[in-house]
Amino acid sequence: MDMKSMREYVCWLYYQYLLITGIYVLEPWEQSIFNTVLCTMVAMVIYTSYVFVPIHVRLALEFFSELVRGQPESTVALMNSR
What we know:
Blueprint (H helix, E strand, L loop, with lengths): L2 H19 L6 H42 L5 H6 L2
């Protein structure tokens, strides 16, 4: 794919973005504010996913591994059997 067709494709994607979101009816300064807010929200979602999803996955794996292995005996039962 040459650079001209790549540039045309990117311009076409941007035009589709403007049409789908309805931003094309806004003034340029309103478009920039909308795009800034949208990019900020996407960045926060990506950062939050990067930070918190691994923790939740680890906790879920620990929880389900406990269920699969079964519950250990209580410590009271272990102490009374001696």
